[in-house]
Structure formats: C-alpha cells, structure tokens
Design a protein that fits this description.
The chain has three domains: about 450 residues, no CATH class; about 40 residues, no CATH class; about 110 residues, no CATH class. The termini are far apart. A hairpin with a 3-residue loop joins strand 1 and strand 2. The protein is globular, with a radius of gyration of 25 Å. The chain has 26 helices and nine strands. The strands form two sheets. A seven-stranded mixed beta sheet has the order 3-8-9-7-6-4-5. The chain has a two-stranded antiparallel ribbon with strand order 1-2. Helix 4 packs across helix 10, helix 13 runs antiparallel to helix 20 and helix 19 crosses helix 22. With about 625 residues, the chain is an alpha+beta fold.
Amino acid sequence: MPTSGGNSDCAPAANQPMTITAKLKKVSFGTIISLIIPLLLFWIILMFRIPYSVTFHFSNYSFGFFVIVFLIYYAFLHLKGNLGLLAAFGLTMALLASALSYKWTSGFSDNFLIGGLLPYKDAKNYYLGASLILQGLPIEKAVQAVERPLFPGFLASILMITSQNLKIAVAIIVQFVGIGLYLSARQIHNSMGALSAGLYSTFMYFYIQPLIGYTLSELLGFMLGCFAFLLIWHVSHDLKWFNFILGLMTLLMAVSARAGAFFIFPMLMIWAGWIFRGENRFSMKAAALTFVIILVGYFFMNTIYPQLLGIPSGSAFGNFSYALYGQVRGGTGWHSAIEELGTRNPDLVYRAAFQFFLEHPISLLIGFAKSYRDFFLPGGPSIFPFRFHSWQDWPGFVLWMGAMVLLIRGTIQLLKNIRSNPVSMLVSGFIGVILSIPFLPPIDGGSRFYASTMPFFFIIPAVGLSRLGKERLQNFTSTDELFISRPLFIILITLTLIVPIGIYFLRQKPTYTMPSCTTGQTPFALEIQQGSYINLVREASECGLVPEVCLSDFEKNNTEKAMDDYYQKLLLLTKGKDTDVRIIPAVDLINQEFHYFFISHGNISDNPLPQLVTGCAVEIMTENQSIYQVESIFPIK
C-alpha cells in the first residue's frame, strides 16, 4: 500500500519514479524527432494552398470519413515505439491542420467567422476582450469576454507572443488542441490498447472539428480538459498531491474558460476522500482539503482574476440565469428569458425563474428530461457527431447505436472494477458529466458546453472496446505522458492566468494626433497588425489563402448572407468598388469601440510591418455590427 494512503491495483514498487535526469537520458533522439516532425507537418500543411474541395472533408462529419479516421487511428496506434508515436501524433496534427486549412482557403463565413479568419459576433467579443487587454483597457464592453474572461486573457497572451498576428495565434491554439488530444489518447493506448485509443481519438477529433479556426472559449476549455484528464489519471496511480492540485487547477481553468460540467468537482472531492483514505474507509480530511482547493481556485479564477482585468464583480457566468430560466419553463431555451422578460439583468432573471418554479415545479423536471433526450439522442444538439434525418441516413443510426452499446458496456465494466483507483476516477468523472446535463441544456448551445470535460465522457465508450482484467489494471498508467506534458501545463497556466494581468497593467497606450475630418465623417485611430485582416481580392490567381481571400469564394461559402444584413452590406460595398478591399477588425483607440474597418486598396499602405494609423471614416450601421468605411488614412511615423 502506498505510504500516502489509499489502495491501488497498480504496483508502485515495481515501477519506481525516475529522476528527471534519468528520464532525459531515456528520451532518445528518435523520440525527439518523432515529436518534432508532426509539429512541423502541421505548419507545412498550413503554408500551402490546398484546394478546399479536398480539405472540406476534414472540416465536416460524414459516415465514411468517421470510419476512415477510426481505422487509420487504430492502425497507427497499433505500431510500436517511435514509429507509432510519429504516425499517430502526425495523424492528429494533419487532421487538425487540414480542418483549419479549409477555413483559410475557402473564405468560409458564418455566425462566428468572416472570410475564414476574422472573428464575428460571439467570437468577436472574445477577440475584442483580448484586444482591450493588449491596449491596457478594461474589457467590460465585450459581453462574452466579461462572462468568461480566461479565454480573452489567454488569447491576449498568444497575440502578444505573435506580435498580434491573429492568423498565427489561431494556428497555435489549434496546435495546442491537437497536443492535448494526442497526449490524452496516448495514455489510453498504453492502458487499454490501440482499439480503445483509436475510438477515443476519433470521437474527440469529430467533437472539436466544427470549432477549429474560431476564437471561441471552447478551444481553451477542450485543451485544458485534456491536460487535466491526463494529470488526474496519473494521480490515481502515484497518489501525489502535487499532481492532484495541478490537475484540479487545470480542470478549474477549463471549466471556467468554457462553463461546463461543474458537478465533476464534488465527484472528484468524494474520489479524493476514497483514494487518500489510508487504512480508513474514507478520508474526510482529504475530501475537505480538496473542497478548499476547489473553492480557492474557483474564487481566484472567477472573482479576483476578472477584477484584475477591470471587470465588475458578479459579471462572470451571468448567462447561466438565462439557461436556468429556460429549464424551469420546461426546456424552452435561454432566449425565452430575454423574449419574455425583456431584460438581460441576471438578478431579475433569477428571481423570475425562482418564482415560476414555485408555481410550476413539474416544469423543471420536464426541462431536465428534454436535456437528457437532446444530449444522448442523435441530432443537432447531441454529444455524438452522427447525424441522420430519415431512414436513408441509416449508417449514422448504426454508428449511434454502436456508440450507445459501447457506452453501456463501458459503464458496466467500470462498475465491476470500481474498487480500482483509476477506474473509480473514470466513474467519478462520468457521473459528474451526467449530473451536469440538466444545467447545461443542449438546446442552448448543443454539445459546446461540455468541451472542458469531454475526455471524461468519451473515455467510457473507449472502455467498452477494452477488457479490464487484472493485467490491464496493473498497467493502467504510464509516466511518460506526464513527463512530456507537465511543462505544457505550466505554460498554459502562465499564459492564461499570469501573463494577461501583466499585459493589462504594463501596457503603454499608443500616442497619436487626432485627425481633422469633414462633416459626416468620424475620426479614428487603430493599430494594423499583420495577419489580423483579410483582403477581398477580385483576381482569382492572386488569392486563395488568408489574408488574401477570393471575393468569389467569400460570397459562395457564406452561410449567412441571405439573412445577415452585415454580410449583405459588406458584399454591396465591395462590389461597388473598382479595387480590392481590406477588412480589419479593430478597436478604435479614440472612442474605444470595436468596428470592422473597410478600406479600399488605394488607401492601403504597402508597409508590411505593424503600424498605428489615424484617419476619417463614415460609419455604416447594420443590425448587429458597425462598418467603418475609411475615406482617408494617415500612417503615424
């Protein structure tokens, strides 16, 4: 029995921890190359203009593609040694890079993205929050950034590192996602085999695939969730409080960045009392200590941290009130609060929800039941990627049935081995996700709410493809992934919690001279950064890879142009010009408001370096956005 308490089916004595020096000696040149080549492959794919008719398949779910990805993952994970590392890690990087390549070459535009690169609507607010942090300004004008400030802070750190190059920053975030996905899958491969790891990797890829290329908080939640899963998994083997605290903090960051299955924390608190029980049946001391760690971490990340960025107290997670109102109304969705109450004040929404619950308590149970239905059954809000609308889509139905069978079988296998520390951790995490479903109704955002805890769910059907005998349980954990990824934990925590605060307090505001504008024009000042704009280009031979977006592709691959007046006005303005145009999303330093600056090619400076400019513009209002049509522009020397 380990001296730190608890029972483990692993055998620590036979696998004594290696020193850092010994581990460094163990890492061969071949292993290093096998790690570096996939990382380089990711960037090589993004450098070239691959026809988006090819990469389209990497950005969308289909029955055939799902099966192909699963079979290739299984084949590559089945390979031994560095060859297996190179193949499986390389596949992960290639899949994610290809999904991002589609956005960059197609000019794809929708509710969250303009021209394959620029943030729009919800994504715009996160980018606005990051931009305000970089200017040393409070981010309270960015709605989503105020409610979930960790991602804007992380994005600000990445933008600072890349000289505010949005294109490179997005790519770095996607690569972090791939690293987290692969490392968590590698741990499953070591303990349960290639088949289980292949299914887990495939599920995780198709879960995050629709979000690739966006500046949305789900990406940070997903990557942190993968790393937290890996850390906490190792705690079940080594029973080290340091790793447990680090894992809890990482998971708290994940759930705070993208509000998720928060009931996982009380379940992990109970689990801590179990594994650190020593000779007792349960350790109240360990459970209480875990509770304190969670409470302190939550308080810092969701109360102190926002205030350090100039956000008023009580603003975080204010949108939860809308979800709760929709649930007590019988699962009507968060929009019903705004439509029926006519307010965005969380306090008023909470009061109305409580009053309605007192009058109609059964309605809340109906909302809960609808949440479980939407979560598990196939369809748009489902946690599974399979889609079918009629019996002609029977392949999707077959895959869904198979996933449900594996989910049930995996649950049964885990319950049979519940006394094992690693197994009890998986059960605790899974129960935490299931208990959270009624409070994260899929009708409000589909499966996006669960990004931070997806490893704790998709591991269950992966277990369904494995046999958890005693031999498996004795080799349930490997220390290699922890050694490789621990520096990444520290880097992510630093970039998310520490660097943004330093940027906010140390950033010096740019100086400029107010331009003189004619009547009807508005003066502005903004910083133009490389890779943080798109050029809408008429000549097809000179475009096809952001920031050079073909105007024809921009119009063709736009999902919202028929209903969004912003896109309608943007296309009308662009077609009315004889030259190419540039779209820049930026904060006007004069009024500290966010706008999309519309600049004709004749006014674009040839200076490739980041620069501060002033000028005059005519503001064009649309329903949700503001376009600044630039009439004159003056670089500041």
